[in-house]
Amino acid sequence: MQPNSMRLIGDTTLYDNLFQPLTLGAITAKNRIFMAPLTRARATMPGNVPNAMMAQYYRQRAGAGLIISEATGISIEGTGWPGAPGIWTEGQVEGWKLVTDAVHQEGGFIMMQLWHMGRLVHPDFLGGEAPVSASATTAPDHAHTPSGRKPYEQARALKKEEIARVVADYRLAAENAKAAGFDGVQLHGANGYLIDQFLRDSTNSRDDEYGGSAENRTRFMREVLEALIDVWGADRVGIRLSPNGETQGCDDSDPATTFGAAARVIEQLGLAHLELREPGSDGTFGRTDVPKQGPMIRQIYSGSLILNSDYDAAKASADIEAGKCDAVSFGRPFISNPDLPTRIRAGAEWAPNKNVPDSWYGRGAEGYIDYPALAEEQAEG
After folding, report:
1. What is the pTM of this model?
2. Which of 73, 95, 225, 351 could disulfide-link 50, Cβ–Cβ 3.0 to 4.6 Å?
3. Which of 15, 152, 193, 301 does the annotation list as catalytic?
């Protein structure tokens, strides 16, 4: 921990501890300003294939200490977002090589986030078949489909003998991510998607060894993580969790017990990082009865902890200084500020998003690769 995280030079604020290197397993990030996974829906369709425009987008943001890619479907079964990229075909692997090459040419690191949406895949993506989940439940609200918004439909519970097949899909995705040149993988265990659906008791009512107690509900997550570790080694595998209340209809009656059990698995497996979607200072694990020890999960997991959601530079620096986390991942600020670390270092104003939220999931370059870097703004001014 750096003793003086913030110093003033003229009217520019430099947050020194955000620019200290951080070792996460086999990767040493050049700063602690990470890029959070952001669904942008720019893959070439049909086929969910990454493309040159996506490579330019990630190249522009390679100044992040670590880029965690947008959520990437591990299979047709697990992908239910129009324009989302995948990692289950050779064409997708070749498309992602454009991205990883671009990031590495700029001196950056990029890990792939592996995604199975579970019950949040609409049958329209599956030829009319029901999506799969931990149990037969239905998500609230509407799905985005190629033909517009439609109500979610009831998922079917994965049969016990099917779970090994899904784990194998994750393994193949991890192997393909390695072939595509990524620096590691992050398991998407947050936001109400399949891993989260197994973890939380509102979506997992199974009566076999994958349901019931919190420890049982972590079993699927553990098996997937073990498969990823077999491919990559634990020092290049991380996970994202969201232990902070309901998300997309997925909730838990005792999150401290549930996510404490998950954190113990992550600690036992020795993962390189744990990223938490933890909005605000009053997030579920942002409080503790022992303030100097930080969030509860930090008392269980001893690896690199990344917090995300609603941060500015000052709050990120303060939380790192206080020992609450080791790095902060920024999401929406990276959309309109491709060189966010440069702007933070210079104390420059952050550019606002334009055409929000339409441009988040648009199909073209507008609102995607047309945001200028600080140097370009200054040259134009």
Report:
1. 0.94
2. 95
3. 193
